[in-house]
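Practice set, problem 2.
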Amino acid sequence: MNLTAIALLVGLCVGSFLNVVIWRLPLMLERQWRRQAEETLNPDAPAPAASEPFNLARPRSACPACLKPIRPWHNLPVIGWLLLRGRCAECGARIPVRYPIVEAFTGAVTVLVVSHFGPTLECAGAVLLCWALIALAVIDFDHQILPDIITLPLMWTGLLFSALDNVRGGYVFTTLADLQSSVFGAMAGYLSLWTVYQLYRLVTGKEGMGYGDLKLLAGLGAWLGWQMLPVVILLSACAGAVIGILMIVFLNRDRQIPIPFGPYLAAAGFVALMWGQPLIDSYRRVSGI
């Protein structure tokens, strides 16, 4: 089995796991926040009775409509959905087509990254980064949150990964960014959007974005280095503006309804990862810098 086939199989399996993360993690956070709020508002209330664990591993995957557990062979990425023809085997309820789309997309991205970087340490880091970006993009699209449990480890692992570039006193490993670029990238990524956030709030009295966006850009800066931040910011801002305008004009979306920025940051981060340097080089040639 060649490297591309292995990358595809691994990507499809990871995509299936990402579907679990995308669905369950926001519910887990909501339950945690509600429990903390109840403890704060009613500190003398008796502790709630123990309930069935709900996390990424338990309970088993089940149909949301009939709650029947999903058979293992129906959980096969993409193939399981096709075998079921998009419906639950027990009750016939529709299974959203987004599940196989996320699986297939994760598989395709994994193959693209592996083909681009080859079997290197850079490839391992790039694949992990892309998997995290996919989960964050879909969660933000659904719930307009970028969970700290993903964004903060993303930033710290980016810094740690960049530190491997100096292991054993020489440049034994090649990483996506050297340690200095990574540290400054994390700092600049956070502070750049923090400045925009504060200026917008000062002028309008409203919050233009959440702190999750700041942490996500800090994570991208840690992985890719400060040199790639202009590419990420420019691409995400342009994409967000264009798509936002199109949604207002053609879909009559209310201007007051916030648009999640995380998916645009994630997409721009992927473009910068794969083709950031060629884009910078092309810009320099055109502008004569």
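Problem 2, part (b): a different protein.
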Amino acid sequence: MPRQHQHHRFPVASKALPRNRRLRADPDLLRQIACIRKMAEDFAGSASAAPPRKQLFADSDMKAQLEIASRLSGDAQRMVQRHLNRAKTLGPWRDVVRAPYPSCLDELHRSFPHCSEVISLVQGYLALCQRSRDCVLRMPPLLLVGDPGIGKTAFIRQLAQLLGSPIVDVCVAALSAGFSLAGLDSSYDSAKPGQVWYALDTECMSPIVLLDELDKPARDSQSMLGSLYPLLERHTASRFVDQAVPLPINASYVNWFATCNDVTAVEPALRSRFEIASISAPTRAQMPAVLASVHREMRSEYEWMNGFDIELDDNVMALLTEMTPRELKRSLAKAYALAARAGRRRLAVADLVQSFNGFTAKFMGFL
């Protein structure tokens, strides 16, 4: 007789489990699932095929300016045509930076604990950018105010790196005239574009422009900052015209950051165009984290740091935490030079003490 197949049936509960036997979700497991989901979202965002693209200039404007340039003569013609042809070669459509998730700045809270309020502010704007259709990084102009040497500029540079944005440094104290930013008319012998044109003369049209020491313009060039007024307003920045290369370009995707020590020294009309955030000097409890950040930055910046031990002695760290962030880097460089001369791989307190006493040496020029 053929063997009959037996069909097994699994028992089906005819009623709900008693209350004390019902399955409950494991909160730890739920947190792990949420973490995995967030990591997948971050990966999907970073793995997008291409960054968003926006139009820097109109083809009709380019055609008109090339025709006008053809009627110029001499150096003026060559200068204008060179810059227009480069812009035409790069094309009217350029990349813009996509805003990352706010969590990408979490490590800044550890490296710059005294800047946590500003970091939270930027994270809020990143969350807003995530609500836009293409998640373009677009923030209002931000002015950081604080005492000299507490790390405002270093913070903005690190922020730009985490945001994935190119950064253009403009030292306001070193600007010599109004045309430094907006260019000098081609009718002058020394005509050339300004720094804003050069900042956008790349494949990315949404860099961070850092205006360092906004409260210290040269005494005879106060008026030069007037060119910033239209650039800091989105609707007027969308058709910015450089004086040397008068092609209307869209500068409204530039993200502006500035630093100053005394906000009252910034001209009121200019000050009103920034959102102002104050940064206090790091407390003694915060300094070890700041020191660790400065030391990591030096290790990535200077190849010669590979010739020294990664860790610092506790006594050395205790002495360093009495300094400002700016003094940290300067003193560490001098102390490492002394250790190198002594043939040691590890800093000693004596190296720092000697550096405090104004030690300078010609061989520091390789820094």
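Answer key, part (b): The first strand starts at residue 53 and ends at 55. Residues 7-15, 358-367 have pLDDT under 50 and may be disordered.
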